[in-house]
């Protein structure tokens, strides 16, 4: 496990695996679209892994399998030692509680206060529905404030979330994930809808918080240079296949990284984010 | 609309190409969609002509009506000046209060029952299709049966008084509230829900944090909108014994005191305007201007329906708000670590509104004097009543029912048609961007406001008094009420038409009329058709009840069967009304989907 105070540990390979994916295949629309093609990799605990690849290469689909927002067509997905597709609903709830998910579209509720969005990260720990921040116990509100403080937004706690800027909204979303006290954070292009300056700041914040809390991070990113700054390891996807899997050190050739982005499929229209129709919500 | 796009492109091409190349293309090809649209148009015209004949308004007879006007005027003349005798003021005030609280409690009941039903019928909330189907059935039924019919039924169960009115309003409100709630739920952004699901939330938590928190503004809009509608329908319920101001209306009509009748009617109109202004103010306090005007809120399915029919009170409320400038919120002076929400003006407003509404709810249970034992003994009879209402055979089904149902359809269609005939030109006068002058605009708008605030059935009462009972009175009364609604919808649509396109047409040197037909009409036509279909739907619902106050159609048989305690007949007729209204609703929905 990576020790939080030792910045020199680059690729921690000790300890058990946080995520283990074997021969994962995912097809959509009755097999006409292959989003993931026999993907296999293992992520040890504490690793900061970045997944790169063109739009439509399967990054989102891959991450969404890890907390069962998608079910695999074939292959196995093991997270924190549990066979994800086989989990019962209560078990899935417990697993999801341990996995924070940061979305490109933030996926926070715009019209409620920031603190309420952060508090919703604690839903997995408490029972029963909540409407309004005041329905959460006081100790959770204190905790939510601490998380908001970490992302630098404590003074905005009672402000409506949609009155914040994009970068601030994503920081609220990060605070919500941290509120879960997760062991793993999955971040799906967390800064793709932010401008470059803010992107750097938000990524720094996310990584810093995760290192402090000893959280394993799987993050998909477009900006390779952003990734090279702090990632332990890079995985490159192209058309649903793993085409690069390398630790980030001197041996990593910049050209090999850029190769992931080259060889453009001339017909491959860039596709935007899907609002999936086959998510597997708990309800 | 795609059909319009293609026609634009075609004109473009014609202008560029030489004529011979395109001579075979200058008329628009017949596509399936175009054929459908035209057959619907023909059908609509035929239906309109037929309906006018059916209700006894024959086109040649329009002259006859004009000739008959002196007689009508004389009758109307007996209504002016309206007044309410001072010795009746006590009764009138207490009846007005009863009506208010009846509507209020009824809406509350409708919300309590309708919102859960709506959620149960939303596809993304309730995964089990059978449950959704049942919930939808209840919603459709309660929407199709007018409140007045429910009132007749519940007066038989609970006896004369406010209680049956409350329940009738509540049960009828379930339908609309349920439907709009379901639409709102299906409209929500799935993203935040995924976010909530990813934290490991359970189904109820998903519902509250992922779904409900996104729906709150829409639900507030729906509730206030329903409250406004119930304020309009409540005054007439007294006609069948359900308490409130309608009792007085009936009494005055019975004793031919027409001036008092008009006096009470005007009082109702004033009350409706005031209440709608209050409701608009409430909406402002809760949602603020930004939220109401933001594109996102306007786009949602449920709001499209609501926003079209925005209350006349809104303008007044806007004016009041303009005058009292809002104070800046406190949010920037907070100490960062408060564990309770700060008292911003928004929170103060929301809490005040909440308090007022809770107080009103308590009052509405106290003031109209509804006893718990009354509720309990009455409700015990419901199963027995329902059993009696269920027909065992077809003996209740007479030719009279068929012919009255057809009359009902005739009233609905002719009323919508007549209203449209007058509304289409008039709406251009009532839209600020097409009206010939500020004065005309203001006059038209205030005229519309007045017309719209008179509840349909109250207008029908006046018309029956003025030109005698029968489908003619019902049709004309409904036409006037519909005219108010339609003109408002159309005028608003015209005001939303894009100025740029109009400039484009004007710069070709067109006249004002050409500009209206070429630049404005194509932009608003789809929303016009869609709104007209919605209004046909409303008109047919209402035409089923104008008969209760003497306006022709099936309503007479309803009240008759209830008076003579012919339960099976009543049940059978209610079922027939349901079928007809539901069929029209399906048709209206189909056409609306075709044109948009
Ligand atoms: N819900 C879905 N239905 C159908 N196809 C999908 C769906 N989600 C993703 N895909 C397809 O899967 C492929 C990978 O998509 P995605 O994982 O979103 O890529 P990325 O996140 O790398 O941009 C794309 O070709 C996309 O068309
Ligand atoms: Mg993606």
Q: Could you describe the 3D structure shown?
A:
The complex is a heterodimer of chains A (283) and B (596). Chain A has 283 residues and is an alpha/beta fold. Chain A folds into 2 domains: 1-98 and 182-271, Rossmann fold (3-Layer(aba) Sandwich); 106-179, no CATH class. Helices cover 29% and strands 23% of the residues of chain A. Chain A has 8 helices and 10 strands. In chain A, the strands form 2 sheets. Chain A has a 6-stranded mixed β-sheet with strand order 6-7-8-3-9-10, with helices on both faces. A 4-stranded antiparallel β-sheet of chain A has the order 2-1-4-5, with helices on one face. In chain A, helix 4 crosses helix 5 (166-179) and helix 5 runs parallel beside helix 6 (196-212). Chain A is globular, with a radius of gyration of 18 Å. Mean pLDDT of chain A is 84; it is low at 1-14 and 265-283. By secondary structure, chain B is mainly α. Chain B has helices at 2-16, 19-22, 32-54, 60-77, 89-120, 129-144, 147-158, 162-187, 190-198, 203-237, 246-254, 258-293, 295-299, 301-308, 313-323, 345-366, 372-380, 382-389, 399-429, 438-453, 456-467, 471-496, 499-506, 512-546, 555-563, 567-595. In chain B, helix 19 (399-429) runs antiparallel to helix 24 (512-546) and helix 21 packs across helix 22 (471-496). The termini of chain B are close together. The model of chain B is unreliable at 1-8, 10-19, 289-312 and 324-334 (pLDDT under 50). At the A-B interface, helix 2, strand 6, helix 4 and helix 5 of A face helix 9 and helix 10 of B. The structure holds adenosine-5'-diphosphate (ADP) and magnesium ion. Magnesium ion binds at residues 59-60, 188-189, 273 of chain A.
Number of helices of chain B: 26
| Rg over CA atoms of chain B | 26 Å
Give the integer mean of the pLDDT values of chain B.
79
Q: Please write the string of helix (H) and strand (E) elements of chain A.
A: EEEHEEHEHHHEHEHEEH
Largest sheet properties of chain B: none
Distance between the termini of chain A: 35 Å
What is the architecture of the largest domain in chain A at the second tier of CATH?
3-Layer(aba) Sandwich
Bound molecules: adenosine-5'-diphosphate, magnesium ion
- CATH classification class of the largest domain in chain A: Alpha Beta
* DSSP helix fraction of chain A: 25-40%
| Order of strands, widest sheet of chain A | 6-7-8-3-9-10
CATH architecture of the largest domain in chain B: Orthogonal Bundle
Question: By CATH's scheme, which homologous superfamily of the largest domain in chain A applies?
Answer: P-loop containing nucleotide triphosphate hydrolases
- Strand segment count of chain B: 0
- Strand percentage of chain A, roughly? 15-25%
Task: Work out the helix count of chain A.
Answer: 8
Morphology call of chain B: globular
Q: Quick one: which chains have the greatest interface?
A: A-B, 54 and 39 residues
Q: What percent of residues of chain B adopt helix (DSSP H or I)? A: over 70%
| CATH classification, class level of the largest domain in chain B | Mainly Alpha
User: How would you classify the helix and strand content of chain B by structural class?
Assistant: mainly alpha
